[in-house]
Amino acid sequence: MKYSVVIPVFNSASILEELNERLINTLQKESNSFEIVYVDDDSTDESWDTLLRLKEKHEHELKLVRLAKNYGQHSATFCGLKFTTGSFIITIDDDLQNAPEDISLLIKKQQETKAELVYGIGKKQHSKFRKAASAAWKQSSKTMEKGLGEGSSFRLFSGELKDKMVMHQQSIIFLDELLFWYTGNIQFVEVPHYPRKDGRSGYTPLRLLKFIIKLTFNYSTVPLKLMTIFGAVLSFCSFLLGMWFLIRKLFFDVSVPGFTATIVAILFSTSIILIGIGIIGKYLSNIMKLLNNRPSFSIQETKL
Q1: 35 near 62, Cβ under 8 Å?
Q2: Between residues 214 and 230, which one has the greater pLDDT?
Q3: How confident is the model at residue 100 (pLDDT cuts 50, 70, 90)?
Q4: Are residues 205 and 273 in the same domain?
Q5: Are strands 155-158 and 62-67 parallel, antiparallel or unpaired?
Q6: Do 55 and 181 belong together in one domain?
Q7: Region 180-192: what's the mean pLDDT?
């Protein structure tokens, strides 16, 4: 098998037929050996029924997986990877914001550079809040974690890279961080990014915020680093302030105000300590979840 395409599906019944037709037409031009893996992330519309109809029409080209509940885009894609057999894996969303025809650009870039991973990057048609949140995460990852700082759900990577990724047992999956962990041979190609074809994104502001928090505590040590930096700065400032009061008392015989300053200092220091304990507790909670070896998804049904 030359190419495997993995598509997480959530409430996209109205555009699945168009997506599938365009995908097959594009892949047939690239190779006569391909497969498409659709992973229904517990859609509440007719997406699964639509996929079953497409499976009847394209029995040998399509593989269908239905998850037991909604696990999110990255976990659904990760699930689909386990059913792929291609030498190269392509991931693309179900909303047609990336054109299936642009898969050819990824393939061409890989053939030219022999990269293990190729991202299709474009100016995304998302809300201002989502763009800001995404930019903040990428910049913090790049600056403080020496991460990639860039990524996209429209990507192509080698089957060897996929084999390494699927060995992971974390319950919280973020594909771009996993990919970056295993390879530095990465290339980018500019692709158009179109408005969503139909429906609304599953990433509401609240859900996106929760997702970013999960990523931060599962794939980043930024909170611990910030806590350390802030603690060091606060300690230095407290030392200088203490020296100032001591000098005033010893050399200038100036009475040092006691009660108010002491209470404020205690309350402020205590709040910082509690925040620090909370951050450490969150990391310990994630370690416990990892030790429990809880899977990132559960499959309800397959049609292979």
Answers
A1: yes
A2: 230
A3: very high
A4: no
A5: unpaired
A6: yes
A7: 90
Same domain, 185 and 256: no
For residue 200, the tally of other CB atoms under 10 A from its CB is 9
Confidence category of residue 101, pLDDT binned at 50, 70, 90 = very high
pLDDT at 103 over 70: yes
Is the pLDDT assigned to residue 144 strictly greater than 50? no
Counting other chains too, the contacts that 109-113 makes at CB distance below 8 Å and 24 or more residues apart are 109/187, 109/189, 110/156, 110/187, 113/187
Q: Map residue 169 onto helix, strand or coil.
A: coil
165 with 267, same domain?
no
Amino acid at residue number 217: F
As a three-state string, the secondary structure of 129-148 is: HHHHHHHHHHHHHHHHCCCC
Q: Say whether both 211 and 227 belong to one domain.
A: no
Does one domain contain both 259 and 128?
Answer: no
Quote the tokens at residue 290: 């990892």
- Domain shared by 131 and 157, yes or no: yes
Domain count, the chain: 2
Q: How confident is the model at residue 204 (pLDDT cuts 50, 70, 90)?
A: low
- Domain hosting 149: range is 3-220+294-303
pTM to 2 decimals?
0.74
d(CA 180, CA 164): 12
